Amino acid sequence: MTPTRERCQARTRKGERCRNPAGPGGLCALHRRQLEEAAAADSAKPAPPRRRRPAPSPPVDTLQPRPRAGGAPGGRAAAPTPAGGAPEREGSPPGEQEGGAVHTPPAAPSEGDATGGHAPRDEGEPDLGPLGPVVDWAEEALEFLARRLLGEYEVDEFGHDPDLVEHVLAPLLRPLYRHWWRVETSGLEHVPASGPALVVGNHAGTLPFDALMVALALLDEHPAHRSLRMLAADLAFDLPIVAPLARKSGNTLACAEDATRLLEAGELVGVWPEGYKGLGKPYRERYQLQRFGRGGFVEVALRTGAPIVPVAVVGSEEIYPMVANLRRLARLLGFPYFPVTPTFPALGPLGAIPLPSKWLIEFCPPIQTAQLGPDAVLDPMVLFDLTDQVRDTIQQTVHKNLLARRGLFG
Fold it and tell me: Considering only 31-45, 110-124, 145-159, 193-207, which range has the smallest mean pLDDT?
């Protein structure tokens, strides 16, 4: 479903992997142009002058007169002849021969090569210092705009636009992930580098930031930089601004048909079985997982043979601690709940700023389903057992990480 696309093999001045799509030679247009400019500059440099080797000296006995009994003519001692034949130059350091060829070993490729380190820089190009990342960002933004204007980007049948995600949506979430919530992710080795898998996680926090942080962890920190195709509720596709962004970021409707098509195409699919029951639960019930529905996600995994990867998120419960739910106002507005937190709606728009809690995300070992076969969906006990196994795994991991976390705000 998602177009297979390789990333540029170069790195930015900050040492991060370039996120532009790769072209010929494994480089994006920006780094390919920089590499060509650096190669042209190197070829235009004048070659260093080569020192000419002097003609071979005549034999020593024909060059130097026979020494007299009193020493060299004029009272000066004759210069000693080195064991190679040619006399040493007067005033030169001992052992240095005149006209000797100088051999310089070739320089090893530095980390600044376009294929392994920072973008290649001309010797005449000034060092921008702290402005280097800004210049990199501006160049990358221009490359992105050029691709959008020329239509050089791909969108799959579900509306997923990976180029927009990597260059617009993900950069908006990275400050929250890295600096505000200081997310620590573990267990990424349990997520397969390729092929289908069903990522199942707990859901809480009033707004679905936990799902966004899990998706960003897989995109940025997983070795394969995998895109998580999340199953979202109907409300996400009814809101005016959220709906197109949800489609472009890879989300699709939470139904068995779409999930099956994505898994059969080898995608990584994310599902949050608690739904609104988890998002809208009060703060006093924090980190108590709600019922996982009727186990529909287990049926999809059994039909496709995809492994189930439980993921436990700690930290999302504290960003908007819900102390009350205005149900009548929620029904009037068409929302599943209307939260009241210590800061919202008392502080107005400022109350929408989430609290800087400390986050821990852990991916648990996968639960294999291929050996059970698709006929296992006809056995209710298999469905219930797998559903409870996934829920218990997440609940136990949440409790373990709550004890490991040093405090609500780290």
Answer: 110-124
Q: Is 286 exposed, middle or buried (0-12, 13-18, 19+ CB in 10 A)?
A: middle
pTM for the model stands at 0.73
> Cα(394)–Cα(398) distance, rounded to whole angstroms?
6
User: Are the C-beta atoms of residues 179 and 261 closer than 8 Å to each other?
Assistant: no
Closest to 138 measured CA to CA, from 146, 148, 150, 127? 146
CB 265 within 8 Å of CB 257: no
Question: What is the enclosing helix (H) or strand (E) of 215?
Answer: helix 209-220
CB atoms within 10 A of CB 250: 28
* Cα separation values, 29 from 9, 142, 399, Å: 12, 11, 48
* Residue 91, pLDDT above cutoff 90: no
Distance in angstroms (rounded) separating the CA atoms of residues 277 and 288 = 11
| Domains of the chain in sequence order | 1-35+140-154 (no CATH), 162-319+354-404 (3.40.1130.10)
Taking a C-beta distance cutoff of 8 angstroms, is the pair 296, 390 a contact?
no
Q: Is the peptide bond before 345 cis (omega within 30 degrees of 0)?
A: yes
Rounded to the nearest integer, the mean pLDDT of the chain is 82
